[in-house]
Amino acid sequence: MLALALVRWPYPRIVAHRGGGSLAPENTLAAIRLAASLGFRGVEFDVMLAGDGTPVLIHDETLERTTGVKGEVAVTPYRELEKLDIPRFQDAARLCRELGVWANVEIKPAQGHSRATGEAVAGMASELWRGAPLQPVLSSFSSVALEAARAAARELPRGLLVDEVPADWLGQLRALDCVALHCNQRHLGEHEARAIKKAGYGLLCWTVNDPVAARRLLGWGTDCLVTDALKLIGPVFK
Ligand code: G3P
Ligand code: MG
Fold it and tell me: What's the domain count of the chain?
């Protein structure tokens, strides 16, 4: 049976990008804590597999930009990543539950690891959020990762991440049994936004840092804005 149509968006409307937007080091526990302390009820973060298969929070396939150390995530065991303050997914999930913060978990596979990442993240998320009042939404640019996530944890809602909305967005959402489309706000038009909502799907836009754009997108029926500008967007639209 298809998961399909959200009658209404049950998740927070404004979500902090990479944990704490531009106010904290990205994809860290400190970032999630900061977002919660500012009153954010939702965060987005990226999850990749370390060399030993441990799901960790990181955006890039390489370590250098965020840690200053050379290396590739996919071949580095967690015991080394831990020294660089890269958190495990399980620790971020527990923190979100403790703080009462909803999570949009972006499955961010390193090249060649799409299936394994989707499977591991979904399987772990299913355990970590068992009995939670609000389940996380798993999203990915990778259709292979989303298929693997569905197979591992069919009950968890999924969002298809895209840069530009593809012409066959409806076919892709149906094929992957997703509840929402997560798109780059730069390329979204009103006609597409309204069509996605009319079809009964959730619509999330990233990364929305301008209050004028935020107002416009919400006016088109967009359900959720992911932002780096926590102090600018958060207080106005929460
Ligand atoms: O999930 C929305 C957004 O995070 C996608 O882009 O590159 O920041 O992970 P990126
Ligand atoms: Mg992301």
Answer: 1
